[in-house]
Amino acid sequence: MIVTTEKLFEAAYGKYAIGAYNINNLEQTMGLFRGCIDSKAPFIIQISKGARSYTHKNMLEALIRAADEIFPEAVFAVHLDHGDEATCMDCIQSGFYSSVMIDASHEDFDKNIEITRRVVEAAHARGIVVEAELGQLGGVEEHVQVSEADAHLTDPETAKEFVERSGCDSLAVAIGTSHGAYKFSGSQALRFDILSEIQKKLPGFPLVMHGSSSVPQEEVERINAAGGQLKGAKGVDATQFRRAAELGVTKINIDTDGRLVWTRVHREFFKEHPENFDLRPPGKEFMAAYAKFIAEKNDYLGSAGELDAVWKLIKG
Ligand code: G3H
Ligand code: 13P
Ligand code: ZN
């Protein structure tokens, strides 16, 4: 069942975080639903601009509608990840998305508010919720590389004003993570001090953590052993998700780790079966591995086992 993030965040606030997973194709869709049902977790499906144009914007909608029928017990939001204003408006008008992210974080403070406000007005008129971003993460986003020098952390002093003036429903904050497989040049450090300050200014307000893949070293080593060349890849310690959740983070975005699972499965498969040219055997292996990966992530997030409680909340 497709829901907005409102009820999901209400259920999760202060206790656990909902996993927000990017999808691009059929195999990720099936693995994601399977993993969330196996671990009894509510979840958020994220679709980026790049994912919308990978085949056709209607293709992922059809896949998700089919998955919703195949897994009727699933509860999830359909969310546009890192939208610009035009893409947000298109998703709002589509009648399919239950949540959009307007990412005007590269604009100055007032312009970010102005753009976010326009998207909020259009979205709320159709019962859709809006995530906005204040501060800027480093790393790769929609093929744009944001250097560490250009990245900046969210200023807790302005967060409240931003939320009040923009009317957004949740806020993505920059607290030291970055997008992609190469996070943290030194030792990893999430800025819980800043997160805690933001929560004090915005008690009860849902916060979002982007760039939260863990880049498991075992995964990286297996990829490299099967011919990959990922050097110095590093991610967020997943054992810190619960602490972030206690400080108001209700949504944690994970994309890169899923890509690593895909890469590992396919590299190992073709190394072990050089004679193979059928796409289905590695596809099947990937769906099973992705489902397992999602269920494990939901354990770290604390969303595993929460599906029944969310159903109760929805049904009132
Ligand atoms: O933050 C970006 C997400 O990982 C989506 O990546 O724009 O390459 O689909 P993408
Ligand atoms: P990762 O690159 O850490 O998976 O972050 C994904 C993300 O923030 C999507 O919006
Ligand atoms: Zn992101």
Automatic annotation (TrEMBL):
Which residues of the sequence carry a binding annotation for dihydroxyacetone phosphate?
180, 211-213, 253-256
What EC number(s) are associated with this protein in UniProt? 4.1.2.13
| Protein name (Swiss-Prot/TrEMBL) | Fructose-bisphosphate aldolase
Biological process (GO) annotations held by this record are: carbohydrate metabolic process
Cite the active-site annotation. 81
Detail which positions bind Zn(2+) 1: 82, 179, 210
The organism's place on the tree of life at top rank: Bacteria
MF terms (GO), sorted A to Z: fructose-bisphosphate aldolase activity; zinc ion binding
Report the cofactor remark. Binds 2 Zn(2+) ions per subunit. One is catalytic and the other provides a structural contribution.
List ligand-binding residues for Zn(2+) 2: 103, 133
Cofactor requirements of the protein: Zn(2+)
The top EC class, named as a word, is: lyase
**Keyword annotations:** Lyase, Metal-binding, Zinc
User: Which SUPFAM superfamilies is this protein grouped with?
Assistant: Aldolase
